[in-house]
Amino acid sequence: MSKFASDVRIYLPLKAFLAYVTLTLLLHYLGPWEYEDEKILLPVAYMIGVMLLFALGYTSVAKRKSQNLVRSESVCAENFRRFKFVAKVGLVLQLVLTVAGAIIDAGAGRLSIISLLNPGQVYIDALNYAKAGAESSFVGQLRIIASPLIYVSNAFLLFSFYKLGRVWRFGLVGTLLLQLIIGVMTKGAQKGIFDLFIIFACTSFLRVYFDAKRFHRWVRTSMILLVLVLLAFTFFQLSRLAAYNISEIGVIGKMRLDSEGLIFVIFGEKMGLAVAVFIGYISQGYYGLSLCLGLPFEWTYGIGNSFALTSYAEQYLGISQVEAATYPLRMEAAYGWPAKMLWQTFFPWVASDITFVGALLLMYPIGRLYARSLTESLTYENPLSICVFYFLTTLLLFLPANNQLMQTREMMVGSVVIILSWLFLGSRFRRPRIILYSPHPATIPDHFASPSVGDGLLKIEGK
Fold it and tell me: What are the boundaries of each domain within the chain?
């Protein structure tokens, strides 16, 4: 690969993130939604700082690594052997848990093929089911515990897809599609589609990075899949509006829609409404951020950044006041912007524990970790690195909305365990396995019998 091509590709995730944040900011301030008494200067300045610090962190690693970014064949082969069996066990476990959960949902009357045609009503029913205080099933608890294994398994098998036998390929595709369909049938949410698209895009990007023809094919395929995902999102949003008997939107809280704007001229009334809802979905968080920036800091003991952590604290420790002290919940109490219905971006949640200055500075190490996970995935094909790259991509894509990695218990447990394992144990998967042996063990003198000393030879497997 030429130096120019290497530089273009290694900086592609950074450029995509900067373009994405810039686009969402433009859609927020120039789009069809108007916000009551919105402050513009402070949140825009804050987001410029976010992009700058992230870019500095990313380039501090990418600039150094791009000079010698090559695939270590021996280490990659060793990592494939190390994780192959574990990944297959994880896939079988995921399939068993998915089927078991489907049986429980069917028994509760929450599983129906017809619901695929009306995900909006399913979404409302799922919200009512959750508000009624329904507890997670035993299968759901097992899935949370097994989430690190499941995430590693999916990342490894998708990345190594063409190295697998036909049975395992069908098993992987079938399990992921079954899980997606059941999720739509029981929750009516499009998040599963987003998650599947993100992990597919990440693993396939890493797989084709060094091949120019396959890389260009990946760009075209990803664009087509992105269009399909956006169409699916539109279908889900229109279904929800129909389920709520909403044919037009004028005002949602402090948001007002310009129903005579350019979007409705181009797309018409019904499709224009869907496009406007999508634009609001990916950009409304900046208004919540602007409101939170005006509030004083109250520490939330290191758990206020996460819905999952605060729910655990309430369930097992009886601590319920922490969530109310977070920036988003205090912002809702002060200004009426619903914290659990509309977005506030990633930063108010994290700032509840480390202040807005701390949340801003956090983008520098996130940028470094993102670039490091990319380069280690390419060089060593370590499934932990691949998972971290996927998790951080997810975090960045949901940055204008919320702290996505810490929202659900399953993703929180999976991401925290895998990222910590990668940070503290990842060096084991950056080198081939080394064993000590002697061609003539019987001739070793007694004073060399200690395991720390010997005249044996170092052998690197795979060389």
Answer: 3-429
